[in-house]
User: Fold this.
Amino acid sequence: MIAVDEIRKHFDGTHALAGFTLHVAAGELFGLVGPNGAGKTTLMKILCTLLPADSGSARIGGLDVKNEPRKVKRLIGYMPDQPGVYQDMSVGEFLEFFADAFHLTSSRRHVAVDRALERSGLADRNRDPVEQLSFGMKQRLVLAKTLLHDPRVLLLDEPATGLDPIARIELRTQLKQLQAEGVTILISSHILSDLEDICTQIALIDAGRNASDADGNSVIQLRTLEPHVRIYEIELIGDSTPGINIVSSQAGARVLESGVGRMIVEVKGADEQVSSLLRALVLGDVNVVRFDNRAPGLEERYERAFGKRQQ
Amino acid sequence: MNPMIRKELRQRMRERRGWLLPSLYLLALGAVVTFAYFVTTMDENGRSNTQGATVGVALFLTLAYSQLALLLLMAPIFSAGAITIEKEQRTLAGLLTSLLTSGQIWWGKFVSSLLFVLLLLVTSLPVLSIAFAFGGIGPWEVFSATLTTIIVLASMSAIGLYCSSVFRRSIHATAVSYATVVAISVVTAVIFFCSAPQ
Assistant:
């Protein structure tokens, strides 16, 4: 759904993007992680047609972002890192204006605004001035506005920044719901625990390029879109080769990543499949010390990938 | 109707200056016409023996030039901040990623800023009618003066909008707009007076 290939952008001699590549499948909730100045916002701005790339290609839904910006705008909803609102409008007027700006027909406009009010939980504040809303409510209003025209792709640049814990939980729930409805979401954030909770995959970006974690992965697989697929982290003593061989011989299991004393394994199927894998490992004299269905912490991976550089 | 025009007009009329400016504008024009009337009609003995038509022409010219000067001062206020305010309150990205074209956004800003200045022009019609009452001028003079004022104001609003799109902050856009308006006005006035028959 989103295909970015070797994209480059520079500002006054500084390379904001220096050949970044990214592929996001339809229906994914894809995270984008990197330190400040890594190029996340520039990438988002290129994808939402606000900035032209110097070279490389960016396509959304098969449409070239540079050459078909109007068609792309129909497909996407973009929420910038510091979204603004019209403080002197009422909540309803704000949504109605953007419904008109997205050229919704009068019948669709009414339904879209009502649904946006319901989605944002602001139905009872329809007539209140936007300036009276809390920061979290304003963020919800902007997200509701972004969804007015039913975009198939959502581009969210740091949407959780400044939100309190409850608002962050609500945002995560809403994003999961949107993904379940089939919306493809690309989200950048510094709040790694949030991304870990909701994303299917996370791409690492640094200095405008694809970055890699300590295991050499530029895209971290957190969960898959298919049901009944789980990812396990297995820690073991000694060489992991026998463990890899055993996992590879098990039906429905495959090794996603491996290193000294650890493996990330994907298991498809019911609980019996998981138990069978663990039994095979133990009977195969692999010294398992941890068998955890939580993938390694994103914070830990982030630290491995970017920690040294930032110190 | 262009949604930008509706939004802009709604926002402008909600501001305090939405009613304050027309009120101050009318007060200023009223003071000018009163001052011009007494200057035109009274001689050094405090008596008036000037013909009505002469008074009408004098009042009309004074009003037309005063109105143009006042509106030239106000036009940059409305247009120079029109786009910078979207940058300052971080709403421009929302507009540019909507299905509104850049042309629609520009036209919405231009029309709404010009309409507010035209509102002032319309509110001054009762004051202008005082000049009519004295005679000496016809509908054509009023029409041509009004049309010229509208064209000048539209040009100045366009300059203000250009500055607004170039600069990031309203204060810079407004300052450069004013400098441009003053420069154009002074140069035009110099050419006008130099080319006028002696």
